[in-house]
Amino acid sequence: xxxxxxxxxxxxxxxxxxxxxxxxxxxxxxxxxxxxxxxxxxxxxxxxxxxxxxxxxxxxxxxxxxxxxxxxxxxxxxxxxxxxxxxxxxxxxxxxxxxxxxxxxxxxxxxxxxxxxxxxxxx
Length: 123
Hints:
This is Winged helix-turn-helix domain-containing protein. GO terms for molecular function: DNA binding. This protein has helices spanning 29-41, 44-50, 55-69, 91-122; strands at 19-20, 26-27, 74-77, 86-89. The protein is mainly alpha-helical and 123 residues long. The chain has a domain at 27-61 and 89-116. Helix 1 crosses helix 4 (91-122) and helix 2 crosses helix 3.
């Protein structure tokens, strides 16, 4: 191992975060992506596929968020004879996405400032 600094090696700060609440509630980027895809497609199967989740796993995530927060984040509308029901995200679900994205934006600003300082210190 060499003691000298390798100028080809640069570092930056990265961060993973989630929103935590009571009742062991956590909501992370995967949950937010699923909710946003539900807003876009209004279909759990399509949203789950885009997120690389099984239908069952996606439904379990939605149910868990609703149970832990005490409010439904989706409202499902049953399909006709051929199925094809629709899922709409409730105002509560939209609010949770907004909270997460607001926190993410603030956190990214802080990380950008830290990384700007890291660049100076590595020069």
